[in-house]
């Protein structure tokens, strides 16, 4: 227990820190009821942008609901673990991890996580890895024009920025997703020459998603440009 405020200013501060439970949002949906993108839409979310579900009525949402779950995942875990009151006190006091310097400093934690999703899943019309080409991308043959090489380099840089932001926000799920996207974009940018680096990113993404330990310093090295990665070392358990 801390000291009780004695003057009017202290009492006012203490009152401002109290959480009115009647104003709290409803608790998160139980994990077993979180359907995400498994729920089929009756009609496309945006005209012309939905995907018809094969052998069934309705449309797929393109992963939007799954992405929304991912954005709110860590906060839902915090609420379940700490209790609603303690979680919202930490949120109100700005104690949850977020970027406090740079262009995102004025954004809330959730707004920063939305920006992270935009870094990973841009839907520009001229983006070559939009839609079905997430599965297939033209191979690197060394004959790409300057504009294509520049575009792929920018996409690779965005994936590294997403990885840095994921680590700063302490979002393990987003970190794993950023590494998998970094793997794909390394291959798109460098082709066979970047295969070893790409596979290393994929291994680290699986390591985070698995039940074992993972080293944050080892992961953060992937966010650096052109850094030599030392792979022969023993990890601390």
Structure overview:
- The protein is an all-alpha fold.
- Helix content is 48%, strand content 2%.
- The protein has helices at 8-17, 64-82, 84-92, 109-120, 146-169, 172-190, 195-209, 216-220, and strands spanning 51-52, 59-60.
- It has a two-stranded antiparallel ribbon.
- It is globular.
- The protein starts with 7 loop residues before the first helix and ends in a 17-residue tail after the last helix.
Q: Descriptors for this entry?
A:
about 240 residues, mainly alpha
Kindly estimate the percentage of residues that lie in beta strands according to DSSP: under 5%
Radius of gyration: 22 Å
Neighbour order of strands in the largest sheet: 1-2
Helix content: 40-55%
DSSP strand tally: 2
Assembly status: single chain
Poorly predicted runs = 131-135
The number of helical elements comes to: 8
Major beta sheet summary: 2 strands, antiparallel
Helix and strand element order: HEEHHHHHHH
Shape: globular
Structural class: mainly alpha
The N- to C-terminal Cα distance equals 35 Å
Average of pLDDT: 76
């Amino acid at each position: 227990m801390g000291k009780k405020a004695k003057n009017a200013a202290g009492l006012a501060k203490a009152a401002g820190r109290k959480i009115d439970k009647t104003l709290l949002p409803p608790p998160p949906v139980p994990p077993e009821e979180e359907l995400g993108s498994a729920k089929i839409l009756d009609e496309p979310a945006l005209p012309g942008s939905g995907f018809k579900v094969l052998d069934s009525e309705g449309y797929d949402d393109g992963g939007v609901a799954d992405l929304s779950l991912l954005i709110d995942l860590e906060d839902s875990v915090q609420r379940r673990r700490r209790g609603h009151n303690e979680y919202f006190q930490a949120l109100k006091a700005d104690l949850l991890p977020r970027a406090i310097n740079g262009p995102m400093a004025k954004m809330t934690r959730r707004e920063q996580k939305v920006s992270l999703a935009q870094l990973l899943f841009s839907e520009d019309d001229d983006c070559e890895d939009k839609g079905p080409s997430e599965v297939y991308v033209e191979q690197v043959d060394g004959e790409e024009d300057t504009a294509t090489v520049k575009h792929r380099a920018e996409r690779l840089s965005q994936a590294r920025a997403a990885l840095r932001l994921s680590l700063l926000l302490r979002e393990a799920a987003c970190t794993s997703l950023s590494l998998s996207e970094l793997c794909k974009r390394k291959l798109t940018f460098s082709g066979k020459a970047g295969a070893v680096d790409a596979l290393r990113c994929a291994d680290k993404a699986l390591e985070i998603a698995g039940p074992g330990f993972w080293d944050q310093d080892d992961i953060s090295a992937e966010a650096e440009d052109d850094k030599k990665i030392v792979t022969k070392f023993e990890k601390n358990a």
